[in-house]
């Protein structure tokens, strides 16, 4: 075939590939309020930067069925492009072709794109919108999922992996997003579930709608599967771009540096106004975080899940940091099963990708209760201890108001390898609060006292004066300095700067055995 004829034929094939499942199905996708796979890629990437892979791939049976049944590219669009000038790999499942179902060709295309991303050290973004496995292709479809899972695991901690759920994601398909670093969902459009409402009702008798079972808010607030729940496809793709701005391309790179124009010696003059006059009253720790970080720009992760701890990404001095902070607004900031898991996962992600960790502590302890013990608070709390102790990135910790009991150790203490530890003047550091401690250590005095309330108040005041303060920890070197809260930003920024090129050698091993 002559070059001119070949180019004309190629153009015809590419034009058909661009139409996916055809104009009728494209119109149906738009009627559902959803973009097509290609429209999503164009909205996500820098204009004109997308380079497609395997646009002409077809299943052999499609070839045998004749040209009319042939869908070039099958049910996924794969390739690479740029976000803010930085290269990323991407795949977008195409719901207009066989409901986006995953067969052999789709599995092979996604695996090939993932291999390229891993080899070249660029983030991998998956845009998921699929009816699940292509039943007609039998075990070949299941093999495709397995091939993708393997690559998710091999790439874990090597390149950032982001999953965006833009429609249904059911059955075995859910495990690939679950293996990635972050999951985004769109409110009212996305669903994730292992088994659907009909199956659950037939087996257990439980009745639930698709949204109740696997919607964005369900997974963002109840299961914790989703890290972000966003309204609208354009908005969720913009949030993906924002998240990537904090992350390095791979585990050998440093996160991007941005000139934010916010001086590191800026004093947090009004930070004291955030704290209530009564030490037991709640406040929103995000008000402190926003004063601490550059321009108040804080991207919270898992905002609606385990709200007694707050985690997210920000910048200090133009450099990315991960922030972990107890949230007194919920459950007094206590550590429980879900908050321990949430924080541990985030700390490990930051450590994998060279993002320093800033920890803000205001914790009364671990949550007591039979349900917590039976739920495994011991092993789940140990995950947080493991994550902090394992992390070798720069770790700076500030005790804001209190740090009691084992939670003091777990929240980035010096004993778990934190590099620089501060406490605010007025902070309390002890085994437990005085109001609890006197019931144990002064039980006999209280029983013998004529006025037990007055004696309790005296003993609590004595305990607070002698034990419930940061100066014993400072005397022992567990806290490096007791600081004016208004100097927190400059102190943290200075510590991060000196730790910028920190090198920490750990004993050689294949990997640790985290208490899963």
Quick overview of this protein structure:
The protein has about 525 residues and is an alpha/beta fold. It is built from 21 helices and 17 strands. Strands 10, 11, 12, 13, 14, 15, 16 and 17 form an 8-stranded mixed sheet that branches. Strands 1-2-3-4-5-7-9 form a 7-stranded mixed sheet, with helices on both faces.
Characterize the biggest β-sheet: 8 strands, mixed
CATH architecture designation of the largest domain = Alpha-Beta Complex
Portion in strands? 15-25%
Q: Give the termini separation.
A: 60 Å
Instruction: Give the overall form.
Output: elongated
Number of strands: 17
Please count the helical segments.
21
From the helix content, strand content and strand pairing, which structural class follows? alpha/beta
Radius of gyration: 27 Å
Question: Looking at CATH, which topology of the largest domain would you report?
Answer: 2-enoyl-CoA Hydratase, Chain A, domain 1
Instruction: Return the CATH class of the largest domain.
Output: Alpha Beta
Overall domain count: 3
Percent of residues in helices comes to: 25-40%
Average pLDDT works out at 93
Low-confidence stretches: none
CATH superfamily of the largest domain: 2-enoyl-CoA Hydratase, Chain A, domain 1
